[in-house]
Amino acid sequence: APWDSLCSPARASLASPVLCLADMAGPIVQMTRHNQAREPVPYVTLSQKCEEAAYEERWYPAGKWACVTKGEPMYEQSISMSFMKLMRYICKENSVGCYLGMTVPVLNEIHLTKEGTELEREVITAYYLPGEFQQNPPVPMDPEICITERAPLRVITRVFYGMTTEETILREISLFWELLGSTDTVLRETYIVAAYENPSIPQRRNEIWFICRA
């Protein structure tokens, strides 16, 4: 299963070199024990374009998410550090003291600079609380993790594969704009990178989300 490769100590250290393996020992054991299906974040498909340049319009209902905000020098550093924090919360470091279950995708909210040529340093990484915990989310032991009620969201999404770096993300955003053409129905400063596999997998599945204006 995609996320379970995190249980390899070598991959855990690659995903975030600033975190020592001792920090990840508990989560690794927990995720090894719980090798069950991943719960998809609920959504409704509004429309699809199924040609070569395929993309999809979706509506996501309001829900509770566990979020971490990081502003490291590199995008990859921010998402790796946030991902590890969320994994520890999911595995055991929460008020109920048990494995909560994995949901996909994990979202990374990004912002472009005014010039639109670079990413702002701050990245918000968000994990959707499984259905059984939506009404009463377990409290994180890590003060950097906050539980947030996110409003309903309408997005236009497109799949891409591989590592997510600032360069690849900017390229995917530019390509998606070329496919959509001129439109003022989506935001130009804020985007979401949706990750379906853990950050250490090279050819992982991702989506770029354009956020529709309310």
What does this molecule look like?
The structure is a single chain. The protein has 214 residues and is an alpha+beta fold. It is built from four helices and eleven strands; from the N terminus they run H-H-E-E-E-E-H-E-E-E-E-E-H-E-E. Strands 2-3-9-11-10-6-7-4-8 form a nine-stranded antiparallel beta sheet, with helices on one face. It has a two-stranded parallel ribbon with strand order 1-5. Strand 2 and strand 3 form a beta hairpin. It starts with 8 loop residues before the first helix and ends with a strand. 31% of the residues are buried.
Features:
single chain; 214 residues; alpha+beta; 9-stranded antiparallel β-sheet; two-stranded parallel ribbon; 4 helices; 11 strands; 24% helix; disordered N terminus
